[in-house]
Every structure is written in C-alpha cells, then in structure tokens.
Write a structure and sequence with these properties.
CATH superfamily of the largest domain: Pseudouridine synthase
CATH class of the largest domain: Alpha Beta
Order of helices and strands: HEEHHEEEHHHEEHEEHEEEEEHEEHH
Radius of gyration: 23 Å
Distance between the termini: 31 Å
Number of domains: 2
CATH topology of the largest domain: Pseudouridine synthase
Shape: elongated
Structural class: alpha+beta
Length: 348
C-alpha cells in the first residue's frame, strides 16, 4: 500500500509551459520536500544539480533546496521530470532486503513498508536489520527516513515506540503532535496489546505462563546489554511477559507467542534466555554453548512483532498484523509450522 499519490497529483496544476502552481495546502513546505512528495524517484543529488543549473526555478528566479514555497508560486519543472511524476514511487516490490533498502530513496522504502495509513497514524512493517533510531555508525534509520514523509504543513511523523534493529514487524508512527500524545499515553498506561512471535531453542515444560523479573542495564566490553537484576539492585525496573507455546519441533525448537506487559529494552530476548529458551539467531543473548542451528535455518534473530491492538487517537481500536519476514517464513516451512495454529489457540 502506498501513500495517496493520486490525490496529491490532483492538487497541483501542470500547464503547457512546464510549471506547477503551489496549492494552498502546500504553503510553507521546503522545496526539496515538495519534490520528494511529487517526484519521489528524483534523488537529492539530482535535485541539487537541477537547482544549481537553473533548470528548476520559482517565479522565474533561482532558488535553493531549503526555500519555503508559497501559495500560487509557479515552480518550473524540467521536461525530464514531467515524464517522471509520481509514477515510479511504486515500482518496487514489497519484499525488502538489506540491498534494496540501501538502494532505494527513503520515501520508497517507507511506502513499501506501509501497512496502514489514515489522517492520524502510519503503521509500518519494519524489516529486520533496519534500525528505528540512530546510533553509533548508523547513517540510515526510520526516524531519519521519516523526514521524507513530512506533511504539507511541514510536520514530521513521530515515533511512539521502538523495535530492536533485528526485530521485524509492526511499528506505529504518529502523524501529528496530538496523535503522538494520545498513542504515547496508551503505551504508558498499558492500554496496548502487543503480540510477538519467536522461535526458541528448546520447549518450555509449562505450555503457558508468565515471566516477572527486574531488569537492569550493564556496561560490558561488548557494549551495553540488559540482564536480570539481583534482589534490591539499584536502577532496576520491573518487567513482565506472558508466553505460550504454539507449536514445537520435537524438543529442539518451539514457536512461542509472547506478550510483553511492560516495555523494557530487549525484554523478550532477556526473558526467554533467562528461563532457558533463548531466541535463535540472537547474537547478544543466546546463551547455550556448542549448539548449532539446524540446516536450512538462517542465523538471524527469529523475533517478529506480529500484531498490535491500540486505541486509535480518533476512537476505536487500531488492530494491525504484519506478515512474517522471509527468514522466518523459511523456518516455518522447514519445521512444518502453520500460521493458522496461533489463531486456533485462545489468546493469552
């Protein structure tokens, strides 16, 4: 599902002289944002070159990429762009890999990830390997990419929760300040139900249960990590997760459905490892030595944010499900797991 490009294109007017008139609801946008909206296939470097050479002008005058546009202004469009329009923004398939993410423009990646959009909310299917926020050595992450999705008033969408870099699945983003406040409140007051799917080493004896522990961050030579806190340890926060075994492959691997009640960093990865059933492919918390992945299973984190149910800022419940990533589809097929099995069992 892409953004409503057809509606956007109706709000600009192309005449025979190769100009487009700025619509009233586009007033105040930066020029580069305007081009990102209407010509998403145009790279930023190409835009800069066209501006420097004077091929793009406003009311016949030279401008820069950060120029703010105003209602009624005429933007000169080079002939090469008249053929481009918005049509190539949807030319990519839905499947994202590290290569296609790197090669696409930000708006194309986000459109390929889009599960739901309305006037208050975006919901994306975040691929494994793409960070939500920046960090050491990270030049591309969703928070930065959201610059390409600014509204016509120039408002950037806001993150309201996080997923680990290697975790795939449902990510909710607010379009407006008010929506962000409402969604953040729902997370803080635990009015949100999040469901994750994981493939773990081993099979818990209790097929359904809860994990309730205090967690604390520690600094190690390999970087920061979370661990279960000692009794009374300073800086520790309580965490709680409910789980159930959906299916198992002998005693070697199990498919767990996980519902975090709290929202601590790396909570599900730490909790499953703590009870002796770490998530396979977890390079940080998988703690069973001399164990090898079965053939045909990729050594990638098998943790997926499958579904979210959250009060919508405008009322009602937003209920969104994300499809499994390709590496987990491969594992499910290999182990004979059926996605419908989760639906046949009662909710936690």
């Amino acid at each position: 599902m892409g953004r409503e490009n057809s509606d956007n294109s109706k709000k600009v007017h192309l005449d025979n002289t190769g100009t487009r008139k700025v619509d009233a609801d586009e007033a105040g946008m930066r020029l580069d944002r305007w081009f990102k909206l209407h010509y998403s296939g145009l790279a930023f470097g190409q835009l800069q070159k066209l501006l420097r050479s004077g091929q793009i002008r406003i009311n016949s005058g030279r401008v820069k990429s950060d120029t703010r546009i105003a209602t009624g202004q005429l933007i000169r469009i080079p002939p090469m762009l008249n053929r481009l329009g918005n049509q190539d923004s949807g030319k990519f398939g839905k499947h994202l890999t590290s290569n296609t993410i790197r090669d696409r423009h930000d708006v194309d990646v986000l459109q390929a990830m889009l599960l739901h959009e309305d006037d208050k909310v975006f919901v994306f299917d975040k691929p494994a390997g793409l960070a939500v926020q920046g960090g050491s050595g990270l030049n591309r992450h969703i928070d930065k990419m959201l610059e390409s999705m600014r509204s016509k008033k120039g408002e950037k969408p806001r993150l309201v929760h996080r997923l680990d870099r290697e975790t795939s699945g449902v990510l909710v983003v607010a379009k407006t300040r008010g929506a962000a406040a409402a969604l953040t409140k729902s997370f803080r007051h635990r009015e949100t139900r999040k469901t994750y799917w994981a493939i773990c080493k081993g099979v818990p004896r209790k097929k359904q249960g809860g994990i309730s522990e205090y967690m604390v961050k520690e600094h190690t030579a390999d970087g920061d990590r979370m661990r279960i806190a000692r009794h009374g340890e300073r800086g520790a926060d309580h965490s709680q997760t409910n789980y159930r075994v959906v299916e198992q492959s002998g005693q070697n691997l199990s498919w767990l459905e996980l519902q975090p009640i709290s929202g601590r960093t790396h909570q599900l990865r730490v909790h499953t490892a703590h009870i002796g059933f770490p998530i396979i492919g977890d390079s940080k918390y998988f703690n069973i030595e001399n164990w090898a992945l079965p053939g045909g299973i990729q050594n990638r984190l098998h943790l997926h944010a499958r579904n979210i149910k959250i009060p919508h800022p405008s009322g009602g419940i937003l209920d969104i499900t994300a499809p499994l990533p390709q590496h987990m589809v491969q594992t499910f097929n290999l182990l004979g797991f059926e996605e419908a099995s989760a639906e046949e069992k009662e909710e936690l």
